[in-house]
Amino acid sequence: MQKVHIYSVPFSSFGRVAQLVCEEKQIPYSMGTTVAGHEVPFKGEQHLAWHPYGKMPVLLSGDKVLCESSSIIRYLDNQFPGPKLQPQDPWLAAKLDERVLLLANYINHALIRDYMLELVFPKGPEGTPRLDVIEMNKPAALDALALVEKWLSEEGGYLFGSEFSLADAMALPSLYYATQLKTPFALVSEDCAVYQYVMRMKATHPSCAKVLVPKQG
Ligand SMILES: N[C@@H](CCC(=O)N[C@@H](CS)C(=O)NCC(=O)O)C(=O)O
Q: Where is the GST C-terminal domain positioned along the sequence (predicted)?
């Protein structure tokens, strides 16, 4: 099987989404910012030719280049053998797609971009987190988690239906990071459904055990 490359850094939540799908389907892949032996600078000319807004991940597969994590995971699932991560039925596939896009566009933003990035890359005085920004954005992060919890209660142990799907792949990297936050910035407690879902996925899916690990690099 042809190897694909994920242009991303290992801690990127969206990069991990693509990585999870490769792991789950056992697609041979490499990941990083070195491509064919050359470092491709973040937001440099080559990266911007691949992604007009300079975002990660970008999938490189032979002479094919694909950006945007939702498109990437759908392509990986359609193109490669291994467990199918989307339903065949067009309506159910569209509903899964809807969930993937809600996760990518709103839930990831509320958790990662508007809340956790403020902790990881603090912009306050002397490199401290801006507590007013965190306080302001915390309700939206909690609302996002409540929505995930509602979906989990309606589905069969996964985020869409009763099997691991593209929705789980899209959600788990950012939900995993949410489980790692410590007081006073914590968003989930160990007895809540989201925390237990993440830990269950790590315990039952080797893909999740490998990808859902603390930030490295
Ligand atoms: N809509 C994009 C979002 C990707 C994204 O925001 N990636 C982050 C890393 S997790 C990034 O490249 N951030 C750099 C930036 O925004 O300048 C996708 O789904 O792939």
A: 89-217
Query: How far is 68 from 7, CA to CA, in rounded Å?
Result: 11
Pairing, β 4-7 against β 29-32: parallel
Q: How far is the CA of 202 from the centre of ligand 1 (A)?
A: 24
In contact, 27 and 82? CB cutoff 8 Å: yes
Q: Which of 11, 42, 51, 56 to probe ligand 1 with, by most ligand atoms within 8 A of CB?
A: 56
Pairing of the two strands 34-35 and 64-67 = unpaired
pLDDT digits (tens, 9 = 90+) for 146-198: 999 999 999 889 999 999 999 999 999 999 999 999 999 999 999 999 999 99
Helix runs in the chain, H state only: 13-25, 45-50, 69-79, 90-102, 108, 117-120, 131-154, 166-179, 193-204, 206-211
Half-sphere exposure (CA, 13 Å, Cβ side) for 43? 1
pLDDT in the model for residue 216: 64
Q: Does ligand 1 lie within 6 Å of residue 174's CB atom?
A: no
Give the number of C-alpha atoms closer than 13 A to the C-alpha of residue 66, restricted to the C-beta side: 17
The answer to whether 70 and 101 have CB atoms below 8 angstroms apart is yes
Domains and CATH numbers, the chain: 4-79 (3.40.30.10), 90-206 (1.20.1050.10)
In the chain, % helix, strand, coil (3-state, to 5) comes to 55, 10, 35
Minimum CA distance residue for ligand 1 atom 12: 55
